[in-house]
Write a structure and sequence with these properties.
The chain is mostly helical and 676 residues long. It contains 31 helices and no strands. Helix 11 crosses helix 13. The termini are far apart.
């Protein structure tokens, strides 16, 4: 068997390993950031909005400025056009990217460790395929930004190395193209030129003699980098927070504090690599603010020592030197980015390649016994395969995921808030409310503002307790205005509306619209305000149509526009809007109820019966549907009095304010039946 055939078999083995490890993740739901990135992102759902992804738009909900990721978002759009919001195709792409990165690891091991046997290269690559630390990067759909960008970075570096070795120009072109694609995927792509110059410095024995040739090649990468930075500055008027007039709301700590924290996190990631148990989304790593803290000073000193060691090993042990630089270069973006989750398992995905290089070097030099190595490899692969399958099962259910998170990290406010939101959305009110309260009461409450807003919205929308919502909004007003003024004003408007303070609600929504004129949800809210508080439907109609331009899937806007058409005595147009709403969300009882009323009142059509019953099926406590069914049966050409009475009693039992005339008719008919 020749080399190409053996390599093909190795690739097939890699493919099989990745497929077996992640086949049980295909049906995993959208979780956490997947909601605003995919589920609620209007820009990826309509062909006419795709060009927005090349400007300053990533999702249709405002998020931190500075991120330009058109290729990543186009990949999500591709999934959406294939399978809508069915998660299978999204997971398939993520699994494919993990497979491609595993192949790149195999090729780089072959490049850096030519004497290492194929079996050992393959064994290391299979460990990468099955390692449970990678589950977050692969199974969590939004982490595609990391795996996709990693593939282009690896392709760019590998192509550059091939260009330097073979002197074939098309490898340089491929490397430059990979760099451009990486930059279009995620900002961390900026590390590629650093990896390239580090490779040249360590592996090129004639580095100083060939510096002109190296500089000329590197200049092309530098020009692309400068062009990218100029474009980012042009689009956002800042470059990743630099030159910004206002401090980012997410900048919850200083750069110095972040550097100290990430220094410690860098070694924590190594701990997770060698002990991948109790994995979770948020490790709740402590924030370090002073060099007096040993967790700040010692890791920083170790990093400096390791870098100096790498410089001294450059000639004698080039791969060890490269690996040390590789690890910290790949983590460098985390030292700059002041993210709420300071230790996320998908962050070191690319950095871990350095660990595989070092292990490969040790295997080459130490030459352990084949039998021992084989048994150890089988044990590790079996263990990692099992752990990965189990971790994928956790990601399969949001309740299970956040419960496991709280078991591993009881102090995680992100887990408490996410679990609370999940439960209240599922109708498990008391338990969900308690978790949201716990997230707010957490001592580390820097990032708890989403839970405050979620709890306030829950009180205002679902519990009919707008006063409670207002208490929260007033109590945390300063922090909410700083962190998320848009959602604060929107929720404030909902609370005011629930309290009957109409003008205050309108002002809050109008202020929110000034902050973000494109926000469809707020336009829809203002449209409903005009429907409920004005006899003129013109303004309401304009708001709803404008909202639908920004979000053609806005159920709130479709329902509102349907109400406008009802008031304009255009029943067929109203039905069209309500049916659009049903198509978007077949489980929404409000749309079925409105369809029932239009068919019953405007068209006198017996289809109304089906829509009212469907409403009750979806929402058994929807009192108006019971009452309208009563009226429907009462006014048939041949009235069905028993059914009418049954639905009337149910509506009354649910607290619906009934018409005395209807009640009198039913009582008279009941007396008549008794007399007969």
């Amino acid at each position: 068997m020749n080399k190409d055939q053996r390599s093909l078999l190795a690739v097939m083995a890699i493919f099989a390993a990745v497929g077996l490890a992640y086949f049980n993740s295909l049906s995993n739901p959208f979780i956490f950031d997947d909601r605003h990135t995919i589920v609620e992102n209007n820009y990826i759902k309509h062909r006419e909005t795709l060009p927005n992804l090349f400007t300053n738009k990533i999702t249709s909900f405002p998020i931190t400025k500075g991120m330009w990721r058109p290729l990543l978002m186009l990949s999500f759009a591709f999934n959406y056009f294939i399978s809508g919001l069915s998660p299978h195709s999204y997971h398939l792409i993520n699994i494919l990217l993990h497979f491609l990165n595993a192949v790149m690891l195999y090729l780089l091991l072959e490049t850096f460790l030519k004497e290492l046997s194929l079996c050992r290269r393959l064994g290391l690559t299979l460990i990468f395929c099955l390692h449970p630390i990678n589950t977050e990067a692969v199974t969590y759909i939004s982490s595609r930004s990391v795996t996709m960008c990693a593939f282009f970075i690896l392709s760019g570096l590998y192509s550059y190395i091939r260009w330097r070795q073979d002197k074939k120009p098309y490898f340089l072109i491929l490397s430059l193209a990979s760099y451009i694609l990486a930059l279009m995927t995620k900002e961390i792509a900026l590390i590629l030129p650093m990896l390239i110059i580090t490779y040249e410095f360590i592996y090129n024995k004639n580095f100083w003699k060939e510096r002109k040739e190296i500089i000329l090649g590197f200049l092309l990468f530098l020009l692309i980098t400068l062009g990218y930075i100029f474009m980012i500055k042009l689009i956002f008027n800042e470059v990743f927070g630099l030159f910004a007039k206002a401090k980012s709301a997410l900048a919850t700590r200083s750069y110095f504090s972040n550097i100290l924290t990430q220094g410690a996190v860098s070694f924590f990631y190594l701990y997770l690599f060698f002990y991948p148990f109790n994995l979770c989304v948020d490790h709740n790593f402590p924030i370090i603010s002073s060099l007096k803290n040993p967790l700040g000073a010692i890791p920083l000193a170790l990093i400096i020592i390791l870098i100096l060691t790498a410089l001294s090993l450059r000639k004698r042990l080039p791969l060890i030197a490269l690996s040390i630089f590789w690890y910290f270069i790949c983590l460098l973006p985390q030292f700059y980015g002041r993210l709420n989750i300071v230790a996320a398992e998908h962050h070191p995905y690319l950095a871990y390649f350095a660990v595989y290089f070092i292990i490969g070097y040790v295997l080459l030099k130490c030459k352990p016994k084949k039998e021992v190595l084989r048994l150890l490899l089988i044990f590790i692969l079996g263990l990692f395969f099992t752990l990965t399958l189990l971790r994928n099962f956790q990601w399969n259910n949001e309740y299970v995921l956040w419960k496991a998170e709280l078991k591993a990290n009881p102090g995680s406010e992100i887990a408490k808030g996410s679990l609370g939101l999940y439960l209240v959305n599922k109708g498990i009110d008391s338990e969900g409310e308690e978790y949201l309260k716990q997230a707010i009461d957490s001592e580390k409450n820097i990032a708890s503002y989403p839970s405050i807003l979620n709890l306030a919205a829950y009180y205002a929308r679902f519990k009919d307790q707008p006063e409670k919502a207002m208490e929260l909004l007033v109590q945390y007003q300063d922090r909410l205005l700083e962190q998320d003024s848009l959602r604060y004003l929107n929720t404030l408007g909902i609370a005011y509306a629930g309290m009957g303070k109409k003008q205050e609600a309108r002002k809050a929504w109008e202020d929110a619209l000034k902050l973000y004129p494109e926000m469809p949800e707020i336009k829809a809210n203002l449209g409903w305000w005009h429907i409920n508080n004005s006899s003129d439907t013109k303004e309401a109609k304009e708001y709803f149509l404008d909202a639908l331009k920004g979000n053609p899937d806005s159920i709130n806007a479709h329902l509102g526009l349907g109400m406008v058409f009802e008031k304009e005595d255009l029943p067929k147009k109203a039905i069209e809007e309500y049916k659009k709403s049903v198509k978007i969300n077949a489980a929404d009882p409000k749309a079925y109820y409105r369809l029932g009323t239009v068919y019953a009142q405007k068209l006198l059509d017996t289809k109304a019966e089906w829509y009212f019953k469907k409403t009750i099926e979806l929402a058994p406590d929807f009192a108006p549907a019971y009452y309208d069914l009563c009226v429907f049966y009462l006014f048939l050409s041949e009235p069905d009095y028993p059914k009418a009475g049954e639905y009337f009693n149910k509506a009354k039992e649910l607290g619906f304010k009934t018409d005395e005339k209807i009640e009198r008719i039913l009582e008279e008919k009941q007396e008549q039946i008794k007399t007969d």
